[in-house]
Amino acid sequence: MNPNFDVLVIGGGPAGTSAAITCAQNGLDVCILEDRKFPRYHVGETVHPGIEGLLQQLDIREQILNADFLRHIGNWVSWQKKEIFVPFGQTRQELWRGFQLVRSEFDKILLDHARDRGVHIEQPCQAFRPLMNKDGKIIGVNTSKGVFKSSYLIDAAGSQNWVTHKLGLKMIKHSPTLIAYYGYAKGEFANCNKTPLLVADNEGWTWIAQVKPRLYQWTRLFFYYKNLDKNYVPKPLLSMEKIGNTSCSDVTWRISSLPSGRGFFLVGDAASVFDPSSSHGILKAIMSGILSGHLISKTEKKQITANSSIANYNKWMNDWFVHDKNNITKLYKELLNPPRWIL
Questions:
Q1: Residue 308: pLDDT above 80?
Q2: d(Cα 95, Cα 195) in Å, to the nearest integer?
Q3: Distances (CA, A) of 274 to 100, 136, 187, 210
Q4: What are residue 101's phi and psi, to 5 degrees?
Q5: Which residues touch 325 (CB under 8 Å, ≥6 apart)?
């Protein structure tokens, strides 16, 4: 195979599909390379109401609203041994409501929508290495299904930081190693009935959210590295039925030294990572995907130079990273026993 596309996207999650849909909306020929079959297992995701405007831009808002994901008007937070309810806010007409997403379903809806918009999908298809021209610009990808050529490459492959590692760039760390543990439990948990709960203690914090009737997703983060076994469950859920194994991911605060460059953009976790307390995972994924798509489209239409596109994206990504870092640092310092590395 030796197909040619305007844009190649590695990864079919929210960041990749958002980028692909945006490019397709602007008349570009796009291909997504996804190495796993869908629906795929993924932890649940609690999302701020601000996502609705982004879904509207992608022309998929009504499909998400009709998917019957649980909605909630805020979160219960126990951060200093004092439990308070933090609402999202409201307009004169209604309360703002967030989404408790079932990621396997959400990701499939986005990928199907990308396909409906004319995006070519290669799945499963593993990306091996980028192709470069003599000037150092990425011009395609060598994959398990052959060579794919393109004018632009969008890395949406998540925290494996594919392009950053392949090009020998650096992930700049801003915290010690942080591991988030995830899992599901089934039963009744009265303290978290349709409203997510965040509880901090001396060692870290626990997030519990209902994703379906009698099904709860939990996240546990320790401020210092711990290697837990696959049977770990947070104490509040020990009496409930454990569903599946405990999974984990590296959520060390980090950002690529070059979020965009000659022929490439890094979106979502491929560009930067924070622990889930930032609550911006999905928002950052979709916003960065949409922005990269718009910048590529404007560059192709000669509305902006390639260098300006790269500079604008790098500034936006670095500014967001600094903003999140400052906010999480402030949040952690409010704890009765904040982690030593934050002081």
A1: yes
A2: 14
A3: 20, 30, 30, 23
A4: -85, 140
A5: 174, 253, 274
Where residue 33 falls (left for φ over 0; alpha for ψ -120 to 50; beta otherwise) is: beta
The half-sphere exposure of 291 on its side-chain side, counting CA atoms within 13 A, is: 21
Cis peptide before 39 (omega within 30 of 0): yes
Q: Which residue has the tokens 């990425």?
A: 138
Residue 86: alpha-carbon gap to chain centroid: 23
Q: pTM, whole model, 2 decimals?
A: 0.94
Q: Is the pLDDT of residue 237 over 60?
A: yes
Q: Compute φ and ψ for 316, nearest 5 degrees.
A: -60, -45
Rounded Cα distance between 157 and 303, Å, is 28
Question: Does residue 303 sit in helix, strand or coil?
Answer: coil
Model pLDDT, residue 142: 96
**Residue 87 pairs with which residues in a beta bridge?**
74
Q: Strand pairing partners for 200?
A: 205
Torsion 187-189-195-197 (CA) sign: negative
Q: How far is CA 229 from CA 207, 226, 240, 247, in A?
A: 19, 10, 18, 9
| pLDDT at position 44 over 70 | yes
Residue pair 87/95 in contact by the 8 Å Cβ criterion? yes
Fold of 4-37+44-69+103-173+256-333: FAD/NAD(P)-binding domain (3.50.50)
Burial of 202 (0-12, 13-18, 19+ CB in 10 A): exposed
Is the pLDDT score of 13 beyond 90?
Answer: yes
Predicted pLDDT of residue 159:
85
Domain ranges of the chain: 4-37+44-69+103-173+256-333
**What pLDDT sits at residue 2?**
56
